[in-house]
Amino acid sequence: MENPSKETEEKWPKDPKNWIWGIFYFNPEEKRITPPKRIPSIGFTINFANPKSVLFMIGAILFFAFILFSIIKKNL
Fold first, then answer.
1. Whether the predicted pLDDT of 1 surpasses 70
2. Closest residue by Cα to residue 29 from 14, 47, 52, 54
3. Which among 18, 44, 65, 75 counts the fewest CB atoms within 10 Å?
4. What's the whole-number mean pLDDT along residues 55-69?
5. What are the helix (H) ranges across the chain?
C-alpha cells in the first residue's frame, strides 16, 4: 500500500492485531516511525516493523546510556 488514506492510518493503531502483548506496535504496512498510541495521553510508541524505528530506538538507548555513564563517571 503506497499511500494509505487518513481513515486507514487512524484505524491501524486501534486494531488489536497490530499490537503484540498490547504494548508493542508492529505493523509492516505503517510507514511512520512513531504512530499514535491507542491511549494518546500515555506517551508514544514505536512501530517495531519499521527498520528505521528499530535504529531510532537503539540510538536513543545508546544516547541515554552515554549520558548516564558520563554522569556516573563524573561523580566517581
1. no
2. 47
3. 75
4. 93
5. 6-11, 51-75
| Domain span holding position 15 | 6-75
Grid look-up 500500500 returns: 1
Whether the Cβ atoms of residue 38 and residue 15 lie closer than 8 Å to each other: no
Mean pLDDT, the chain, integer: 85
User: pTM of this prediction?
Assistant: 0.68
pLDDT for 10 beyond 80: no
The per-residue pLDDT for 63 is 97
Element (H, E) at 20: strand 19-20
Question: How many residues can be counted in the chain?
Answer: 76
Number of structural domains (the chain) is 1
Sign of CA dihedral 25, 29, 34, 37: negative
Would residue 1 count as lying in a domain? no
